[in-house]
Design brief:
The structure is a single chain. The protein is α+β, with helices and mostly antiparallel strands. The protein has a single domain, classed as Nuclear Transport Factor 2, Chain: A, CATH 3.10.450. The chain is built from four helices and five strands, in the order ααβαββββα. It has a five-stranded mixed sheet, covered by helices on one side.
Amino acid sequence: MNAVDRFWRARSEGDWESLAAQLRPRLRVSLPAQASNPGRDDYLAFLRLVHQSGRVESVRSITGRSAELAVIAHLAGPGGDLVVAGFYELREGLIELIEEIYVKPGSAGDIGSGMVRLRA
């Protein structure tokens, strides 16, 4: 099991301490739909925001080479469903780079209009 597997397992269980342990201290994050490149602590706060409404994770696939992995996951919650496309780069066994895009299901025909900007 690699850091991305452990990251998503911890994320689905709401185990923020274990999740944070999978991230390098100088983690780089890109959230294009949020127009944001948060640091490690802000990204962890963002994830707590995303999951505060009781969202349930369903990881559909984790694919890629050993140091570059992609994930498709489903988030279901009272505010509606989201699909997460995540791209992760590992270095020395931990996640160094994350790019995540959140899309409403059924909007794939026009991906730009389906991207979701999450708010507090």
